[in-house]
Amino acid sequence: MNRVPPAAEPVAGKPSRREQILAAAAELFARHGFHGVGIDDIGSAVGISGPALYRHFRSKDAMLGEMLTSISEVLLDGGQARVDAASGPEKTLGDLVRFHVDFALDNPALITVQERNLGNLTDPDRRKVRALQRRYVETWVEVIRAAVPAAGEPTARAAAHAVFGLINSTPHSRHLDRDQMADLLTGMAMAALVQLSDRVH
Length: 201
What we know:
The chain is an all-alpha fold. Helix content is 70%, strand content 0%.
């Protein structure tokens, strides 16, 4: 499956036509909503006719399914890579936080589409995306519990979702430049997570 490459992890060379279509669709879905965008709108954004899109995707639903599956795969793979590469629980947690911050800031349209459109997926795509998302959450839960041993599983799970909420809201409220925002979000998330031990005693 072709993935939507996040700006945080660029691929060499020109994006494929499928990647161009998915990127354009993500921007349009984020701006106008999935149901507010037609095939002709997406085709116009990439300079081809709407019907010509069917050479690449069988339907708009298929575009959304590939888009959200790709996002979930990129997050899971990237999160696991940080776990595998880092040394020490707190460093692993910091790397995981920064990875998610970078993804959210560099891919605001994808984050918006992911948050708003799970219900618009076909049942098979929804099950696949939910399974990938659960695995990503489990990665966070394990890392949080390793870094903050006093945090039980329910607390670690709640903390992971709270951090996602903080970070994923940034496409709607970017008042600083990109690097300043990344540092702010990373610092806020880490401050909250490392202080969990004080809150669970």
